[in-house]
Amino acid sequence: MSFVPHRNASLHDVIRRAHLRMAAWAISLAGVLLLLVGVVVLRLYLLNNLQLMARSLAYTVEAALVFEDRDEAGKLLEQLLRGEDVARAQVFDARNQVFVQWSSRKSARGGVGEMLAAGIGLRPEEAEVSQDGKPVGRVVLYSDGAGVVRFLCAGLAVLVFCLGISGYLGLRQSRRMLRDIAEPLEQLARVARAVRRDRSMEQRVPAARIAELRELGDDFNALLSELQMRHEKLRQQNSVLELKASRDGLTGLANRSHFEKRLRQALGDAAETGRKLAVLFLDNDRFKQVNDVHGHAAGDALLRAVGERLHAMVREADLVARLGGDEFAILLYPVGGVADAQFVADKIQDAMREPVLMGSGVQLQPSVSVGLAVYPQHGQDLEALMNHADQAMYQAKLARHSANDRDKE
Ligand SMILES: Nc1nc2c(ncn2[C@@H]2O[C@H](COP(=O)(O)OP(=O)(O)OP(=O)(O)O)[C@@H](O)[C@H]2O)c(=O)[nH]1
């Protein structure tokens, strides 16, 4: 297990590995120490036990040894030692010759226990056999180490069990930590990404359980609120600017560039749908005289009044614009054809019959010459249509002027 996290390791991996490592180290260390202490205590206990058995055996086989009854001594050894944790027993006589000996059938099957017993220093225990205080022999017992094996097996099983449990708890803990640490961070990253990619600044990071992360989220949310506010303000300023850029300052109508933009859009749409559109070109008649006689302010007021009347003559979807000076234009879209456009032009002329009353009490008579062009008959694009309408207006103006001149004569 590496201590240095992999470069691309996720927070989840790092936390999970740290928990598992911690659990494994803690349990292994505690387990090994406990096993060592256990083995030391167990060794003392087993030595005591062996000593007690050796003394008891020395007392039991005393008579058989004195009367040199080997069979009886063998039976006694079998009776006393069967089922005990003893591998071998030897009884020596006064001449230190082996009088009788006994081996466990268990230990004959394998010497692992005895090896382990030797490994932890379980030496053979001996006890003197005496009669009336006089030594007549001795008994030597060898442990089979079964107690050690049992203890080690149980200890290892408990250790493995504890490792499993603490691994499981470590994983659960890492999952909880992940929920508390990684989730808020992931949400923060998700919201930041959404703001960067889609400019969706209405998103907010939910409150985290950990105080520091909650604070981070709150700061982030406050930053988003500020950004959102500024963004909204900018958007509003932009739309005001856009509106201003598309309006004529005097009349409040659309200006030339906005009119041309809308006309291009309408032409594109009409080309796709097969619908018709009409452009009306209007120019005030003898407007210079108005300025000259009544002043520039009166001219402005007349232009505003003409603009309002034009606007009142068309539908909501149509567009009235002041192109500049005393020129106006109207986009009728959709329109049935030339007749419909002419009908609107006539309505406009009717609307101009009423004089405009100035603040000074002076009455000014508005008068406009109108020329029209219909798509697709009179032109396929903006320039062609505007030209056609301009020419038509010019013709109308000429006719008006000559009629006026005739009237004067
Ligand atoms: N009051 C006012 N006058 C303007 C404005 N813009 C242009 N004019 C004036 O409008 C007049 C336009 O005159 P023309 O269109 O050339 O001629 P006209 O007197 O209308 O004569 P015809 O078009 O031939 O009938 C000019 O005298 C300009 O100075 C404006 O915003 N306000």
Global Rg: 56 Å
Order of helices and strands: HHHEEHHEEHHHEHHEEHEEEH
User: In percent, how helical is the residue content?
Assistant: 55-70%
Count of β-strands: 10
Q: Kindly provide the name of the CATH class of the largest domain.
A: Alpha Beta
Number of helices: 12
Low-confidence stretches: none
- What is the residue-averaged pLDDT? 90
Read across the widest sheet, the strand sequence of neighbours is: 2-1-4-3
CATH topology group of the largest domain: Beta-Lactamase
CATH level 4 superfamily of the largest domain: PAS domain
Bound molecules: guanosine-5'-triphosphate
What is the beta-strand fraction?
Answer: 15-25%
Shape type: rod-shaped
Broad structural category = alpha+beta
